[in-house]
Amino acid sequence: MLRNSSTIYAGCDPAVQPNAPQTGQIFDTQTGDNIALPHPAIAAGEKLMAQGCAVATTNDGKQRVIYLLTTKTPSQGLTPESQQTNLIAFDPSTPQPTAKKPFSPPAPGNEVDANWSIYPAEGGFVVVHWSGPDLISVAFFDPNTLETKAHLEVALNTDTGIRGINYDGYAVQNAIKGPTYTTFDLHFHSGADGTEVGTFRNLGNIIAVDHGFLLEHNVQATPKAGASVDPADLAPGVFYFDMRARDITGPIAPYLDMSQGMAPSPTIPALAEAFTYGDTIILAGSDSRRGGYLKIFDTAAKKEVFGLSDQQISGLKISDADIGGNLVYLKNESDNPVIDYRTSKTMSAGWSVRPLAKLDGGWVLLRTEGPKTSTGSNTLCVGSYSFPCGGGGATAMDRSGAYLARGATGDYAGPWF
């Protein structure tokens, strides 16, 4: 099961690879129906070599099923063998394509160590290409015309690198070299047109979330040559760059805990909703030297709405945390409380259902489950739609116990636990 910024879908693999067409569905938030995904027809005599798929959302809220598809036509007579790669768009309600366009970058499989994927974006979709762990190309497209809106390619082993992608754009780092030290400045670019919309100097850690980036400065005890000496560029803590508002807020938390194994690759936009529910982001740290913490940050209000200190986490014996609605779900050794983070009031001891994602039209994706099995670790784990806590826990691709619901006349109103 995957999602874009407005709904969920399944049977639409983002990785461009040699696989047969899948049977999939998309959830229509306007009608409440599951719609079978249309598939491109393969012409007689052609062979499917590779395909990837994403469900994109147009600027006016319509869904488009997008395929990046490579076919091969065998040689015939004096006509040599040929291979072609196309982008093909469908309205989910119709079997015929709404648009088809040749894909101009090198076709998947035509270069060494190629790795291509296609993902949803805000008002479109994005095609990414990396070699090994390094992202070397990103292109945002219009889902109606299949025209490129923003495109960047970088060479390997250079001072420029693509560090993150989300629904709204991408982040590019540039190296600033000194005699003994190299620092990196991060530049944010809009997926709508490629324009630069912000900068973050002295980059340390980075995590992409659905509509922004969580960031830390590379704070040095003594600034080295090449690094900015502006106090603002050396400030400790976690900062949030909002790609929609194009502003930065922080610090919103003491540090990014990259050791938990909870952080997705910032170059995989399909996982960019990690740690988020609607406009809220949940963050935690369990570094014994710096002290543990749990924070919930409201990206719309630009403020912290809930927090627990290291002493509180230790005293309450909290091991796992999740958010959904206005609630934070805490696993501990005793009562597994569900807390309304607006009031800090305990709403329940334990739960049998938990929201996973907020969708358009008042719909919520929920899963029937209780407090999860312990991670077997002394660190605090933050769960999300893509990265649940608990050994053997269900992943975003696992639909067991998942269902969709909304209120009789609008937004889903419960049960929440």
Structural summary, described in words:
The protein is mainly β. It has three domains: 1-129, no CATH class; 159-272; 278-417, no CATH class. It is built from one helix and 32 strands. Strands 28-27-26-25-31 form a five-stranded mixed beta sheet, with no helix packed on it. A hairpin with a 2-residue loop joins strand 13 and strand 14. The longest helix is centred in the C-terminal third of the chain and has 7 residues, at 310-316. The protein is globular. 43% of the residues are buried.
Give the topology.
Blueprint: E1 2-3, E2 8-10, E3 25-28, E4 33-36, E5 47-57, E6 63-73, E7 82-90, E8 97-102, E9 116-121, E10 124-131, E11 134-141, E12 148-153, E13 160-166, E14 169-177, E15 182-190, E16 196-200, E17 203-209, E18 212-217, E19 238-242, E20 247-253, E21 276-277, E22 280-285, E23 293-298, E24 303-308, H1 310-316, E25 320-324, E26 327-331, E27 337-340, E28 345-349, E29 353-358, E30 364-368, E31 381-382, E32 402-405
Parallel strand pairs: 25-31
Antiparallel strand pairs: 1-2, 2-3, 3-4, 5-6, 6-7, 7-8, 9-10, 10-11, 11-12, 13-14, 14-15, 15-16, 17-18, 18-19, 19-20, 21-22, 22-23, 23-24, 25-26, 26-27, 27-28, 29-30, 30-32
